[in-house]
Amino acid sequence: MNSRHRHTGSQSGGRPRFFFLLFLVVTVSMIFFVVNITAFQFELQQDWLVPAESSYSQIHQTAELNRFVSKAKEQMSLNDRKGLPRPLGKEIHYKVTKFQLSAGTSTSFQFSLQLLNDGANNSTEKVRTELSYSNYTSEDRIICRPRHPYIMIFQHFSQVAFPCWSILRRFPNSQRMMEIAESGRFGQRWITDMLEVFQSSGISINSKATNMDDAKNEWVATPNKTAESGWQHVISDEDPLEVEIVGPTYFIDQQDVIALQQHLLGEDYISNKAGSKLPLRVLLVTREGESRNWMYAQEVAMEIERIWGDWIEVKLLPKITGSLKEQAVQFHRADIVISPHGGQLTNLAFIRPCTTVLELFPIQYYLSFFQNYVLSAGGISFEGYPLGRSPLHDTSLTPINRTIRTSARGKPMLASPESILHALPMLFLSCLSCQEDKLI
Length: 440
Description:
The structure is a single chain. The chain is built from eleven helices and 14 strands. By secondary structure, it is an alpha/beta fold. Strand 4 (about 140-145), helix 3 (about 155-170) and strand 5 form a beta-alpha-beta unit. Helix 2 crosses helix 11. The protein is globular. The N and C termini lie far apart (about 85 Å). Mean pLDDT is about 85; it is low at about 1-15, about 30-55, about 120-125 and about 125-130.
Protein backbone atom coordinates (compact mmCIF):
# COMPACT_ATOMS: atom_id res chain seq x y z
CA MET A 1 0.00 0.00 0.00
CA ASN A 2 2.73 2.44 0.99
CA SER A 3 4.61 1.79 -2.16
CA ARG A 4 1.45 2.19 -4.18
CA HIS A 5 0.67 5.51 -2.45
CA ARG A 6 4.21 6.67 -3.14
CA HIS A 7 3.84 5.80 -6.85
CA THR A 8 0.47 7.58 -7.08
CA GLY A 9 1.87 10.57 -5.33
CA SER A 10 4.74 10.86 -7.79
CA GLN A 11 2.22 10.78 -10.70
CA SER A 12 0.11 13.57 -9.31
CA GLY A 13 3.16 15.65 -8.55
CA GLY A 14 4.64 15.16 -12.05
CA ARG A 15 1.45 15.99 -14.00
CA PRO A 16 2.08 19.79 -14.15
CA ARG A 17 5.61 19.20 -15.35
CA PHE A 18 4.32 16.79 -18.07
CA PHE A 19 1.82 19.30 -19.41
CA PHE A 20 4.41 22.06 -19.31
CA LEU A 21 6.85 19.96 -21.33
CA LEU A 22 4.07 19.00 -23.78
CA PHE A 23 3.14 22.68 -24.21
CA LEU A 24 6.80 23.56 -24.78
CA VAL A 25 7.24 20.85 -27.44
CA VAL A 26 4.03 21.85 -29.27
CA THR A 27 4.99 25.54 -29.20
CA VAL A 28 8.48 24.90 -30.59
CA SER A 29 7.03 22.59 -33.27
CA MET A 30 4.51 25.23 -34.34
CA ILE A 31 7.24 27.87 -34.61
CA PHE A 32 9.39 25.46 -36.65
CA PHE A 33 6.41 24.64 -38.90
CA VAL A 34 5.55 28.31 -39.53
CA VAL A 35 9.19 29.15 -40.33
CA ASN A 36 9.45 26.24 -42.76
CA ILE A 37 6.14 27.05 -44.44
CA THR A 38 7.34 30.63 -44.99
CA ALA A 39 10.62 29.40 -46.39
CA PHE A 40 8.79 26.88 -48.61
CA GLN A 41 6.47 29.59 -49.96
CA PHE A 42 9.48 31.78 -50.71
CA GLU A 43 11.15 28.85 -52.46
CA LEU A 44 8.04 28.32 -54.59
CA GLN A 45 8.07 31.97 -55.57
CA GLN A 46 11.71 31.66 -56.53
CA ASP A 47 10.83 28.57 -58.66
CA TRP A 48 8.02 30.36 -60.53
CA LEU A 49 5.35 28.61 -58.43
CA VAL A 50 5.95 25.13 -59.84
CA PRO A 51 3.05 22.91 -58.64
CA ALA A 52 3.99 20.25 -56.15
CA GLU A 53 2.63 17.48 -58.38
CA SER A 54 5.00 18.55 -61.20
CA SER A 55 7.98 18.26 -58.87
CA TYR A 56 6.84 14.80 -57.82
CA SER A 57 6.19 13.84 -61.42
CA GLN A 58 9.69 14.94 -62.42
CA ILE A 59 11.26 12.98 -59.56
CA HIS A 60 9.16 9.97 -60.52
CA GLN A 61 10.15 10.37 -64.18
CA THR A 62 13.84 10.50 -63.29
CA ALA A 63 13.59 7.39 -61.13
CA GLU A 64 11.69 5.48 -63.81
CA LEU A 65 14.14 6.56 -66.50
CA ASN A 66 17.03 5.29 -64.40
CA ARG A 67 15.28 1.97 -63.90
CA PHE A 68 14.44 1.74 -67.59
CA VAL A 69 18.01 2.52 -68.69
CA SER A 70 19.38 -0.05 -66.24
CA LYS A 71 17.04 -2.72 -67.57
CA ALA A 72 17.86 -1.82 -71.20
CA LYS A 73 21.59 -2.17 -70.50
CA GLU A 74 21.06 -5.46 -68.68
CA GLN A 75 18.84 -6.76 -71.49
CA MET A 76 21.36 -5.75 -74.15
CA SER A 77 24.17 -7.51 -72.27
CA LEU A 78 21.98 -10.58 -71.79
CA ASN A 79 21.02 -10.65 -75.47
CA ASP A 80 24.69 -10.46 -76.48
CA ARG A 81 25.54 -13.42 -74.22
CA LYS A 82 22.60 -15.59 -75.26
CA GLY A 83 22.59 -14.79 -78.97
CA LEU A 84 19.62 -15.69 -81.15
CA PRO A 85 17.77 -19.02 -81.14
CA ARG A 86 17.12 -20.88 -84.37
CA PRO A 87 14.45 -19.07 -86.45
CA LEU A 88 11.03 -20.69 -86.56
CA GLY A 89 9.21 -21.54 -89.78
CA LYS A 90 9.75 -18.88 -92.44
CA GLU A 91 11.28 -16.38 -90.05
CA ILE A 92 14.58 -14.74 -91.04
CA HIS A 93 16.88 -13.35 -88.38
CA TYR A 94 17.99 -9.79 -89.11
CA LYS A 95 21.18 -8.01 -88.17
CA VAL A 96 20.70 -4.40 -87.07
CA THR A 97 23.47 -1.86 -87.65
CA LYS A 98 23.72 1.90 -87.42
CA PHE A 99 23.68 3.70 -90.77
CA GLN A 100 26.77 5.74 -91.59
CA LEU A 101 27.22 8.14 -94.50
CA SER A 102 29.83 7.20 -97.08
CA ALA A 103 33.07 9.16 -96.86
CA GLY A 104 32.82 12.52 -98.57
CA THR A 105 29.01 12.50 -98.72
CA SER A 106 26.56 14.72 -96.90
CA THR A 107 22.84 15.09 -96.23
CA SER A 108 23.06 18.67 -97.52
CA PHE A 109 23.32 20.12 -101.01
CA GLN A 110 24.26 23.33 -102.77
CA PHE A 111 22.50 25.20 -105.53
CA SER A 112 23.11 27.81 -108.19
CA LEU A 113 21.04 30.71 -109.57
CA GLN A 114 20.82 31.49 -113.24
CA LEU A 115 19.48 34.86 -114.37
CA LEU A 116 16.90 34.35 -117.11
CA ASN A 117 16.21 37.87 -118.37
CA ASP A 118 19.71 39.30 -118.45
CA GLY A 119 20.13 39.30 -122.23
CA ALA A 120 23.69 38.52 -123.28
CA ASN A 121 24.98 38.37 -119.73
CA ASN A 122 23.42 35.00 -118.94
CA SER A 123 25.73 34.15 -116.04
CA THR A 124 25.42 31.66 -113.22
CA GLU A 125 25.96 32.83 -109.69
CA LYS A 126 26.83 30.48 -106.87
CA VAL A 127 24.60 30.92 -103.86
CA ARG A 128 25.09 29.75 -100.26
CA THR A 129 28.39 31.27 -99.22
CA GLU A 130 29.37 33.88 -101.79
CA LEU A 131 26.02 35.68 -101.99
CA SER A 132 23.78 37.18 -99.32
CA TYR A 133 20.16 36.13 -99.62
CA SER A 134 19.07 39.51 -98.30
CA ASN A 135 20.36 41.11 -101.52
CA TYR A 136 17.33 39.68 -103.32
CA THR A 137 14.22 41.84 -103.05
CA SER A 138 10.62 41.87 -104.21
CA GLU A 139 11.93 42.82 -107.66
CA ASP A 140 13.50 39.36 -107.91
CA ARG A 141 11.51 36.22 -108.68
CA ILE A 142 13.21 32.99 -107.64
CA ILE A 143 11.96 29.96 -109.57
CA CYS A 144 12.60 26.34 -108.65
CA ARG A 145 11.79 23.64 -111.22
CA PRO A 146 11.48 20.17 -109.68
CA ARG A 147 12.07 17.46 -112.29
CA HIS A 148 11.90 13.68 -111.87
CA PRO A 149 10.73 10.91 -114.22
CA TYR A 150 8.49 9.52 -111.44
CA ILE A 151 7.35 12.82 -109.97
CA MET A 152 3.72 11.62 -109.89
CA ILE A 153 4.68 9.16 -107.11
CA PHE A 154 4.84 10.96 -103.77
CA GLN A 155 8.17 9.59 -102.53
CA HIS A 156 9.86 10.72 -105.74
CA PHE A 157 7.97 14.01 -105.71
CA SER A 158 9.50 14.65 -102.29
CA GLN A 159 12.99 14.11 -103.74
CA VAL A 160 12.66 17.22 -105.87
CA ALA A 161 10.05 19.27 -104.02
CA PHE A 162 11.79 19.41 -100.64
CA PRO A 163 15.00 20.83 -102.13
CA CYS A 164 12.82 23.59 -103.62
CA TRP A 165 11.42 24.26 -100.15
CA SER A 166 14.97 24.59 -98.78
CA ILE A 167 16.07 26.92 -101.56
CA LEU A 168 13.02 29.18 -101.65
CA ARG A 169 13.05 29.60 -97.84
CA ARG A 170 16.31 31.49 -98.26
CA PHE A 171 14.66 34.31 -100.16
CA PRO A 172 11.90 35.63 -97.88
CA ASN A 173 11.95 39.09 -99.46
CA SER A 174 11.59 37.85 -103.04
CA GLN A 175 8.79 36.48 -105.17
CA ARG A 176 8.99 32.69 -104.96
CA MET A 177 7.63 30.14 -107.41
CA MET A 178 7.77 26.39 -107.90
CA GLU A 179 7.32 25.56 -111.57
CA ILE A 180 6.08 21.99 -112.11
CA ALA A 181 5.27 20.51 -115.51
CA GLU A 182 1.70 19.14 -115.68
CA SER A 183 0.99 19.66 -112.00
CA GLY A 184 -2.74 19.25 -112.68
CA ARG A 185 -2.19 15.51 -113.15
CA PHE A 186 -1.19 14.83 -109.55
CA GLY A 187 -3.61 12.29 -108.13
CA GLN A 188 -2.03 11.33 -104.81
CA ARG A 189 -3.38 13.27 -101.84
CA TRP A 190 0.04 13.42 -100.18
CA ILE A 191 1.30 15.50 -103.12
CA THR A 192 -1.71 17.80 -103.43
CA ASP A 193 -1.64 18.44 -99.67
CA MET A 194 2.07 19.27 -99.85
CA LEU A 195 1.47 21.72 -102.69
CA GLU A 196 -1.07 23.47 -100.44
CA VAL A 197 1.62 23.70 -97.73
CA PHE A 198 3.93 25.41 -100.21
CA GLN A 199 1.25 27.86 -101.29
CA SER A 200 0.18 28.72 -97.75
CA SER A 201 3.80 29.59 -96.97
CA GLY A 202 3.93 32.14 -99.83
CA ILE A 203 5.33 29.94 -102.60
CA SER A 204 3.23 30.05 -105.76
CA ILE A 205 2.82 27.01 -107.98
CA ASN A 206 3.32 27.39 -111.75
CA SER A 207 2.12 30.99 -111.91
CA LYS A 208 2.86 34.19 -110.08
CA ALA A 209 0.57 34.97 -107.20
CA THR A 210 -2.10 37.61 -107.67
CA ASN A 211 -0.29 39.97 -105.30
CA MET A 212 3.02 39.63 -107.19
CA ASP A 213 4.35 42.50 -109.24
CA ASP A 214 6.22 41.92 -112.45
CA ALA A 215 9.72 40.91 -111.50
CA LYS A 216 12.67 42.92 -112.69
CA ASN A 217 14.88 39.83 -112.49
CA GLU A 218 13.93 36.18 -112.83
CA TRP A 219 16.28 33.57 -111.44
CA VAL A 220 16.13 29.80 -111.83
CA ALA A 221 17.50 27.87 -108.86
CA THR A 222 19.15 24.55 -109.66
CA PRO A 223 20.13 22.17 -106.83
CA ASN A 224 22.91 19.65 -107.27
CA LYS A 225 22.78 15.89 -106.59
CA THR A 226 19.29 15.83 -105.05
CA ALA A 227 17.76 13.19 -107.32
CA GLU A 228 20.27 10.39 -106.71
CA SER A 229 18.74 6.92 -107.00
CA GLY A 230 20.24 5.55 -103.79
CA TRP A 231 21.52 2.41 -105.52
CA GLN A 232 25.15 1.37 -105.28
CA HIS A 233 27.45 2.13 -108.18
CA VAL A 234 31.02 1.27 -109.03
CA ILE A 235 33.50 4.03 -108.17
CA SER A 236 36.25 2.94 -110.58
CA ASP A 237 36.26 0.77 -113.70
CA GLU A 238 39.62 -0.57 -112.57
CA ASP A 239 38.08 -2.13 -109.46
CA PRO A 240 34.48 -3.29 -109.98
CA LEU A 241 34.30 -4.36 -106.34
CA GLU A 242 34.83 -0.80 -105.09
CA VAL A 243 31.35 0.62 -104.82
CA GLU A 244 29.60 3.47 -103.03
CA ILE A 245 26.02 4.40 -102.33
CA VAL A 246 24.91 8.00 -102.60
CA GLY A 247 21.38 8.71 -101.48
CA PRO A 248 19.18 11.68 -102.34
CA THR A 249 19.63 14.91 -100.40
CA TYR A 250 16.39 16.61 -99.44
CA PHE A 251 17.22 19.65 -97.29
CA ILE A 252 20.07 22.13 -96.97
CA ASP A 253 20.01 22.06 -93.18
CA GLN A 254 17.93 20.95 -90.21
CA GLN A 255 16.25 24.34 -89.85
CA ASP A 256 14.52 23.72 -93.19
CA VAL A 257 13.06 20.50 -91.79
CA ILE A 258 11.90 22.23 -88.61
CA ALA A 259 10.30 25.08 -90.57
CA LEU A 260 8.39 22.60 -92.75
CA GLN A 261 7.21 20.64 -89.72
CA GLN A 262 6.09 23.74 -87.85
CA HIS A 263 4.21 25.06 -90.86
CA LEU A 264 2.42 21.77 -91.52
CA LEU A 265 1.79 20.57 -87.96
CA GLY A 266 0.97 23.86 -86.23
CA GLU A 267 -0.11 23.10 -82.64
CA ASP A 268 0.80 19.42 -83.11
CA TYR A 269 4.49 20.30 -83.46
CA ILE A 270 6.47 18.94 -80.50
CA SER A 271 9.65 20.54 -79.22
CA ASN A 272 12.35 18.37 -77.63
CA LYS A 273 13.11 20.91 -74.90
CA ALA A 274 11.78 18.61 -72.20
CA GLY A 275 14.44 15.98 -72.76
CA SER A 276 13.78 12.28 -72.17
CA LYS A 277 10.33 11.25 -71.03
CA LEU A 278 8.55 7.95 -70.50
CA PRO A 279 6.71 6.17 -71.94
CA LEU A 280 8.71 5.95 -75.15
CA ARG A 281 6.43 5.70 -78.16
CA VAL A 282 7.23 2.86 -80.56
CA LEU A 283 5.60 2.93 -84.00
CA LEU A 284 5.54 -0.39 -85.89
CA VAL A 285 4.53 -0.05 -89.55
CA THR A 286 3.46 -3.32 -91.21
CA ARG A 287 2.44 -2.41 -94.82
CA GLU A 288 -0.55 -4.71 -94.55
CA GLY A 289 -1.92 -5.75 -97.94
CA GLU A 290 1.14 -4.43 -99.79
CA SER A 291 4.48 -5.79 -100.90
CA ARG A 292 7.00 -6.20 -98.06
CA ASN A 293 4.20 -6.75 -95.57
CA TRP A 294 5.86 -7.43 -92.19
CA MET A 295 4.38 -10.78 -91.19
CA TYR A 296 5.47 -10.82 -87.54
CA ALA A 297 4.86 -7.22 -86.47
CA GLN A 298 1.86 -8.15 -84.28
CA GLU A 299 3.96 -10.65 -82.35
CA VAL A 300 6.70 -8.05 -81.87
CA ALA A 301 4.16 -5.56 -80.51
CA MET A 302 2.83 -8.10 -78.00
CA GLU A 303 6.32 -9.03 -76.82
CA ILE A 304 7.33 -5.39 -76.38
CA GLU A 305 4.32 -4.81 -74.15
CA ARG A 306 5.06 -7.98 -72.16
CA ILE A 307 8.77 -7.26 -71.63
CA TRP A 308 8.78 -3.48 -71.23
CA GLY A 309 5.36 -2.81 -69.74
CA ASP A 310 4.32 0.78 -69.02
CA TRP A 311 7.71 2.14 -70.06
CA ILE A 312 6.77 1.68 -73.72
CA GLU A 313 3.67 2.69 -75.66
CA VAL A 314 3.35 0.59 -78.82
CA LYS A 315 1.31 1.54 -81.86
CA LEU A 316 0.81 -0.90 -84.72
CA LEU A 317 0.11 0.87 -88.00
CA PRO A 318 -1.09 -1.57 -90.69
CA LYS A 319 -0.97 1.00 -93.49
CA ILE A 320 -0.47 4.71 -93.96
CA THR A 321 -3.67 6.51 -94.90
CA GLY A 322 -5.31 9.89 -94.46
CA SER A 323 -4.18 13.42 -95.14
CA LEU A 324 -0.57 14.53 -95.25
CA LYS A 325 -0.91 16.07 -91.79
CA GLU A 326 -2.47 12.93 -90.31
CA GLN A 327 0.42 10.84 -91.65
CA ALA A 328 2.99 13.37 -90.48
CA VAL A 329 1.59 13.44 -86.94
CA GLN A 330 1.90 9.64 -86.62
CA PHE A 331 5.63 9.82 -87.33
CA HIS A 332 6.20 13.08 -85.45
CA ARG A 333 4.90 11.62 -82.18
CA ALA A 334 7.06 8.49 -82.32
CA ASP A 335 10.33 8.05 -80.45
CA ILE A 336 11.14 4.77 -82.23
CA VAL A 337 10.00 3.83 -85.75
CA ILE A 338 10.40 0.27 -87.10
CA SER A 339 9.22 -0.35 -90.64
CA PRO A 340 9.95 -2.26 -93.82
CA HIS A 341 11.45 -0.22 -96.65
CA GLY A 342 8.70 1.55 -98.58
CA GLY A 343 7.14 4.83 -99.66
CA GLN A 344 5.47 5.36 -96.27
CA LEU A 345 8.91 6.29 -94.95
CA THR A 346 8.72 9.57 -96.87
CA ASN A 347 7.01 10.73 -93.67
CA LEU A 348 10.36 10.45 -91.90
CA ALA A 349 10.72 14.08 -92.96
CA PHE A 350 8.43 14.83 -90.01
CA ILE A 351 10.22 12.99 -87.19
CA ARG A 352 11.64 14.87 -84.22
CA PRO A 353 15.35 15.11 -83.44
CA CYS A 354 16.63 11.92 -81.76
CA THR A 355 13.83 9.76 -83.14
CA THR A 356 15.45 6.39 -83.79
CA VAL A 357 14.46 4.60 -86.99
CA LEU A 358 15.01 0.96 -87.96
CA GLU A 359 14.39 0.36 -91.67
CA LEU A 360 14.09 -3.30 -92.66
CA PHE A 361 15.33 -4.32 -96.12
CA PRO A 362 14.43 -7.49 -98.03
CA ILE A 363 17.15 -9.70 -99.50
CA GLN A 364 18.57 -8.24 -102.74
CA TYR A 365 16.89 -4.89 -102.15
CA TYR A 366 19.19 -2.60 -100.20
CA LEU A 367 19.53 1.07 -101.06
CA SER A 368 20.13 4.43 -99.42
CA PHE A 369 16.95 6.40 -99.99
CA PHE A 370 15.15 7.27 -96.76
CA GLN A 371 18.15 7.28 -94.40
CA ASN A 372 18.97 10.89 -95.26
CA TYR A 373 15.49 11.95 -94.18
CA VAL A 374 16.32 10.64 -90.72
CA LEU A 375 19.69 12.37 -90.56
CA SER A 376 18.34 15.66 -91.97
CA ALA A 377 15.75 15.77 -89.19
CA GLY A 378 18.36 15.06 -86.51
CA GLY A 379 17.28 11.45 -86.01
CA ILE A 380 19.29 8.24 -85.70
CA SER A 381 19.15 5.75 -88.57
CA PHE A 382 19.52 1.99 -88.19
CA GLU A 383 19.25 -0.65 -90.91
CA GLY A 384 18.11 -4.24 -90.72
CA TYR A 385 19.29 -6.83 -93.23
CA PRO A 386 19.20 -10.66 -93.13
CA LEU A 387 21.85 -11.99 -90.76
CA GLY A 388 24.94 -13.47 -92.36
CA ARG A 389 24.39 -11.86 -95.76
CA SER A 390 26.02 -8.90 -97.51
CA PRO A 391 23.58 -6.19 -98.64
CA LEU A 392 26.05 -4.78 -101.19
CA HIS A 393 26.89 -8.18 -102.69
CA ASP A 394 23.26 -9.29 -102.75
CA THR A 395 22.08 -6.09 -104.42
CA SER A 396 24.85 -5.75 -107.01
CA LEU A 397 22.62 -6.79 -109.94
CA THR A 398 19.32 -5.43 -108.64
CA PRO A 399 19.60 -1.89 -110.09
CA ILE A 400 20.18 -3.19 -113.63
CA ASN A 401 17.97 -6.31 -113.60
CA ARG A 402 14.25 -5.56 -113.52
CA THR A 403 13.31 -9.20 -112.89
CA ILE A 404 15.46 -9.40 -109.76
CA ARG A 405 14.27 -6.00 -108.60
CA THR A 406 10.57 -6.84 -109.03
CA SER A 407 10.96 -10.18 -107.28
CA ALA A 408 12.97 -8.78 -104.36
CA ARG A 409 10.68 -5.88 -103.61
CA GLY A 410 7.51 -7.97 -103.95
CA LYS A 411 8.21 -10.51 -101.21
CA PRO A 412 6.78 -10.33 -97.68
CA MET A 413 9.00 -9.06 -94.85
CA LEU A 414 9.99 -12.03 -92.68
CA ALA A 415 12.18 -10.31 -90.07
CA SER A 416 11.93 -12.51 -86.96
CA PRO A 417 10.48 -11.16 -83.71
CA GLU A 418 13.53 -12.43 -81.79
CA SER A 419 16.00 -10.41 -83.88
CA ILE A 420 13.97 -7.21 -83.56
CA LEU A 421 13.52 -7.67 -79.80
CA HIS A 422 17.25 -8.41 -79.59
CA ALA A 423 18.01 -4.98 -81.13
CA LEU A 424 15.43 -2.96 -79.18
CA PRO A 425 17.57 -2.09 -76.12
CA MET A 426 20.19 -0.59 -78.45
CA LEU A 427 17.50 1.52 -80.13
CA PHE A 428 16.08 2.65 -76.78
CA LEU A 429 19.46 3.66 -75.40
CA SER A 430 20.44 5.49 -78.60
CA CYS A 431 17.23 7.51 -78.48
CA LEU A 432 17.53 8.41 -74.78
CA SER A 433 21.20 9.26 -74.98
CA CYS A 434 20.54 11.60 -77.90
CA GLN A 435 17.60 13.26 -76.12
CA GLU A 436 19.78 14.04 -73.13
CA ASP A 437 22.62 15.36 -75.27
CA LYS A 438 20.52 17.48 -77.65
CA LEU A 439 17.95 19.53 -75.80
CA ILE A 440 16.61 21.95 -78.40
